[in-house]
Amino acid sequence: MITLDFKGSKPIYEQIVEQMKFAVMKGYLKPMDAIPSVRKLALELKITPGTVAKAYQELERQHIIMTIRGKGTFISDEITIKPDETKVMEIRKQLTTEIMELKMMGYNREHIVELVKEIYEEMSI
Fold first, then answer.
1. For the segment 92-109, what is each residue's pLDDT rounded down to a tens digit?
2. Phi and psi at residue 36, in whole multiples of 5°?
3. Residue 33 in contact with residue 74, Cβ under 8 Å?
4. CATH number of the domain to which 38 belongs
5. CA separation for the pair 119, 102 (Å, rounded)
6. Could you tell me the end-to-end alpha-carbon distance of the chain, in angstroms, rounded to an integer?
7. Cβ pair 42, 51 in contact under 8 A
8. How many domains does the structure of the chain reveal?
9. Is position 5 within any domain?
């Protein structure tokens, strides 16, 4: 469900937050679906529980997940995620820079589109 990039510049907890939000937006996770405990997810991802706890705290702050004492952690039943326009513009800027670099390396439009498709298909979410 969650794929981490340990070599990238984005903190691991932010990667977890983004991928959980993406899974909710796409309908892979629905309101009241149970999600793994902090310890279980940390073991699955081979990271520290503190990193998962930080991600879960941020997801709770954004009302994406909720913890029910004695029952577990669930996707919030009152969730509404809308893309953050500022974030979308930031990603667009990053993509533009990367595409320009590929063009300078000799990639044409078709190669770049195919590369993006391959990356998207490789994603496990």
1. 888 999 999 999 999 999
2. -60, 150
3. yes
4. 1.10.10.10
5. 15
6. 5
7. yes
8. 2
9. no
Tell me how far apart the alpha carbons of residues 19 and 2 are, in angstroms, rounded to a whole number: 6
Contact 103, 111 (CB under 8 A): no
Tokens linked to 77: 């039943």
Residue 7 lies in a domain: no
- Distance (Å, whole) CA 9 – CA 101: 18
The verdict on residue 33 lying in a domain is yes
CA angle 79, 80, 82 (to 5 degrees): 145
Which residue range(s) make up the domain with 52?
A: 12-75
- Which residues lie below 8 Å from residue 74, measured CB to CB, with a gap of 6+? 31, 32, 33, 34, 35, 65, 66, 67, 68
Amino acid at 33: D
One domain, residues 37 and 57: yes
pLDDT tens by residue, 40-87: 999 999 999 999 999 999 999 999 999 999 999 999 988 766 666 667
Q: Cα angle at 57 between 52 and 60, to 5 degrees?
A: 125
Do 21 and 67 belong together in one domain? yes
